[in-house]
Each structure stands twice: as structure tokens, then as C-alpha cells.
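Q: Protein A?
A:
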Amino acid sequence: MESNAAPEGRGAEPSRPQSLPARMAALWADGLGRASIRSVQALSVLALAWVVVQAVTRVPLVLVPVLIASILASAMAPAVRWLASRGWPRALAVLASFLLIVAVMAGVVGGITAVVRDQAGVLAARAEAGIGQLQQFITTGPVALTSDQIDAARGEFQKFLAGGSLGADALTGLRTAGEIAAGTVLTAVILFFFLKDGGQIRAFLIGFLPAGQQGKAHLAAERSIVVLGGYVRGTLIIAAIDAVIVLAGLLILRVPLAVPLAAVVFLGGFIPIIGATAAGSLAVLVALVENGPVTALVVLVILVAANQFEHHILQPLFMGRVLRIHGLVIILALAAGATLAGVIGALLAVPVAAVGWTIYKTIADRDAPGPEPIAPAAPEAPR
């Protein structure tokens, strides 16, 4: 009978040491390894985003016209489609819509500029006097601050506003009048071609993506156009309503310079949440100088009430699902835009953030209907 026992002196075969690739795979397989991989991926994405931001902010004369033209084209697309559906040739529909929006913008901007310019000196004098009264109250009030402390705080605030070369350039309205003219002409040209050949341009850009991703890219582009168009139209209506509310309050309170102050509030209304209120602070200063602290306090209450009315009623009514972004995200986007590009950045930050959020939701299928909530089970009937 043969024995299956191993011969004496021959033990069990020793286990072979793992190879280097196997040891490396085991090293990254545990929880810490997976967290490290995710961290490296996140850092890579942030590095790519930083490179993109640094690249695009180096060419504001190209970036800003493209963004503005994209926003205006999205707002004007329904008018072009409506005219085309009525039998107009597309080129003629684009030209008519283009000339209409240029005429309207020129009229609105020109009218507001004329009103504000005629009273600019008086507004500046009243604002300076109001700031002086506030400073006197602060220095002599219950929590007295020294003039040196106030001057230091003012200096730090001015440094913050002037921080960054691009922000300084944006606050001064681009370096020269030639750059402003070039940016305006470039915006008009880009807007015309976006309206005329927007579909072809979008198809060309999306064509670089893998075939499996092009469907979602087209869907994200369509949703982004809807978001931008709704944002522009809703913001315009909300800014006008804010200006009318402030104008009515100033006229009732007999505050001087009511029309130019309301025009400033209208312009500030294009910056969500804080724009109209910040622009309306000029009205508070004028009321403080001309009508006293009680009237100034009433004007401040009107501004705060208009802000709440805008946030809780007007935005849901006129924008609906377009701007479903938390207020904190909007404020952070405004801060980032103002830091990168001053006033222009603050104006463009929210629509850019809204489009980015729309693209993310489309790619991640966040808009797909989820499962129905589980209802509590009803007690079974006795058998």
C-alpha cells in the first residue's frame, strides 16, 4: 500500500513572497488607499480648473464678449424661433432680433446714463455728506471709534476692492476707450453669429467629445440656453420692479433725486440678492442728508423689504427652476467673480454658476425622477 505521507525531511512547500505589483495593489486596496486615490483625483481636477481660470482671465477682451454674447443670445433665441416659425427667413429673423435688442439696450443704457450723469455731481456730494454724518455718529456714538481706526478700515476696504490687476482693470472699465469700443464691437459680432449659426457652432464643439457623451452634451447645452434666457429675462423684470418700488418710496417720502437713485437701483438689480440693496445705500445717504435720520431709516426698511420681496416672491415667480441655487452659493460666486474681474465678474458670476450647475445636473442625471418615497405600511387586516 502506498503511503501519501511526505518523505521525512521534506516539509510543506513555503509560500512564495508576493510580487511588487501585488504588494502595491494591496497597499492601495484598503480604505486609506482609496481615500488617497480620491484625493489625488480631486487635486488633479482642481489643478485643471485653476489652469483654465488662469488662462481665460488673461484674455478678458475675448472672454467677456463671448460670455455676454452667450447670455444675450440665449435670451433672444425665443424671439428668433418665433419669427422663424411665422415664415421669416432665419437670417432676416436674426437680423430683426439683433437690431431690436441693440436699439433697446442703447435706449435703456443711454437714458439711464443721461439721468445719472446729469445729477452725478449732486449725488456724489450728497453721498459724501452722508458718509461724513455716519462717521461723526460712529465717532461720537455709544461705541465710539477713533478717526484713525475708521481711516484704517476704509483703507483696507479700498485695498480689497482694488485687489488683483484684472479686478482693477474691470473697475476702471477696461484700460482705454479703444478697448471698450473693441469689446463692444466684438460682442455685437459674436452675438450675431451665435444667433445665426448657434446650432452649427454647438455641434462643431460637441463633435470633439466621444460619441457616447455627445447626447448628454447636447441636452446640457439646450438646458443651459433655457437657464440663461430665463435668468436674463427674469433679472430684467425683477430689477425694474425693484426700481419702481424704490422710486415710489422716495417720491412718497419726498427724497430729492428720486429718479437717478431709482436708476442706480435698477442697475444694481442685475446682481442678485445684494445688488439692489447695495446700490440703494446711496438713497439712504441722500435721505440722511436731506431729510434726516428717520427718513433714512424708512428708506433702509423699504430696501430690505424690497430685497425680501425679490428673494421670496419675484425670483420664484419669474425664474422658477432657473435659479434654484442656495443664497450662500450665489454670494460666494459673486465674491469670486468680483475678486477675479471686478464689476464685470460680479455681473457674470451668477449666470456662469447657474450654467455650471445645470451642466453638472445633466451629466449626473440629477434631474431624472427618483424613487417614490416609501409610505408607512398599513396594518394588515385580520384574517
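Q: Protein B?
A:
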Amino acid sequence: MDVSGTLWVLTILGLSALIAIDFFIGRKPHDVTTKEAGIWTIVWIALAALFGLGLLFFGETQASGEFFAGFITEKSLSVDNLFVFVLIMAKFSVPSHLQQRVLLVGVLIALVLRAIFIAAGAAVIANFSWVFYIFGAFLIYTAWKLIQEARADEEEEDEFEENRLLKSIERRFGVADRYHGTKLFIRNNGKRVLTPLMVVMLAIGTTDVLFALDSIPAIFGLTQDPYIVFTANAFALMGLRQLYFLIGGLLKKLVHLSYGLSVILGFIGVKLVLHALHESGVHVPEISIPVSLGFICAVLVITTITSLIANKKQEAAAAAEADRAAEKSSSIDA
């Protein structure tokens, strides 16, 4: 897709305006209701759909297909981020009315960092086509590692561990012992220190970089157009805050999500390797965008269904066990 500098500027201005509107609406700290989160989740998805359809309307059929495939992939991978966001909120004991502000700024930091990653990735791909082999192998490895971690998580309780950058920032500036509303810095004994609110914002923004190591190569496996990569990531991330409040309570029920994401990453990894072989002159079949889009959607649907079925069986087993324990207790008392 041939993107002019003017279109880039207009797109960035448009996205910035949407972020500003989102910030204005959520400027007052409050507890986000399920209804509010649901409405805004639909709004963000509708905006992404309109953008994709807009590309189709202006004759960019391939770009439209790549955007939808990229958006769905990034959205599904970003849901996995929510598990970590929940751990971060618990780790820092973030008051419920401040969580929406934390996510808004944290996601904004993540978007800026991802833009840097995308620019670097596009530059590397443009000059070194063999990097597709590395991206493909990395995604296949990540898919296998994700399966291993999913199995381990079934037996262990997850806990957020601060990264080195965050620890160094805390040591350098110091951190207040409690939250001070929406303030990011305060004066403590004459010294300017961070508030816990600033720390948790940085935690969410910098932690997303780790997820970008997976998601950026994944979307480059679907499209090599930096414009599509950037916009798909932007729309996927900007609706993440509302999605957090909408499905926060459902995350634990998506027990097979990691397995589904591993299948998607493995699939895109294979697609990248095939593309690299094709670029090297080897006659191998390439996976088209419609096939990729259909496969990704099918995996997500199947994963959701099997997760809900498995969760229902677990709840039934737990209820049966509780009934047996109650019966046993009653017989002992008798």
C-alpha cells in the first residue's frame, strides 16, 4: 500500500484525537461499570471495523484483509496482556477508581514504545529479507514456550515480578508510601518522589514491551506494510482499557486461551518461514491472507468454546465435591 506522508500525518492526528477524547471522558477517576466498559468496547471495535472497511472502499482490498487479520491477531494477543495487568493491579493494590487512569496512560506508553518497535522492524525487513527466518523461528519457539508456561500455570499461582528498568527507576527517584489521588509526583521531605500511581503506569507500559516481542513479529508475518502494522496495533491497544473492565472477571474462565494463542503464533511462524523460502527462490506454497484470517478466527472461536466447556466441568466437579463433603460432615454429626 502506497502511503503518503500526508496520510501518515492525518492518521496520527486522528488517532491522537481519539486518545484525547478517551482521556477527556475518563479524566475524572471513577469505578468503571460493566455497561460503560461494554459500550466503549463496542465503540472501539466499530471504529477499527470502519477503518478496515474504509481501506476496502478506497480500493485497498489486500490492505483491508491484512488490517483485519492483523487487528484480530493483535487483539487476541493483547487479551493475554490483561492477565498480567490484573497481576500488576493486585501487586500495587491500585484503588478501583484509579485503575482506568492507570490503564489509559499505561497503554499510551505501550503504544509509543510499539511504534518504535514497528519502525525498527520495518527498517530491518526492508534491508534484510532473511530476517523472516529469524522471526518465523522465534514465533514457533514462542508458541512452544507458551504451551509449556500454560501447563506450568495450571499448577502454580502467578505473581508479577518488577522488571529491572522499573526497579532502577524506583531506586533513582524514590516512591511515596501511599497513593495521592491522580498525582504522579509529590514532595517528600523536600525531595520529589514518584507516587505508586506513576510506578504502576510505568509497570504496565514497560511490561507491554515483552508482549511486543511476540506480537510485532506476528503481525509482520501477516503484512509487511508499516502503515497496516501500526494502525492494527493502535486500534488493538486503544480499546484494551475498556476490555480490561469488561472481561476482567472472565479471564480466569478462558483456561485454553494460551493454547489457542500458541497455535496462532506457531501458524504465523510457519507462514513467515514459507514466505522467507519463497523470497529465497524456493518454490513453496504461501498462505494467503483470507486463509490466515479464517484460521485465526476459527482458533479463537474453538478456544473460547472449549475454555467455557472446561470451566463449566470444573465448576460442576467443585460443586459435586462440596456436596460430598457436606454429606460426609452430616453423617459424622449424626
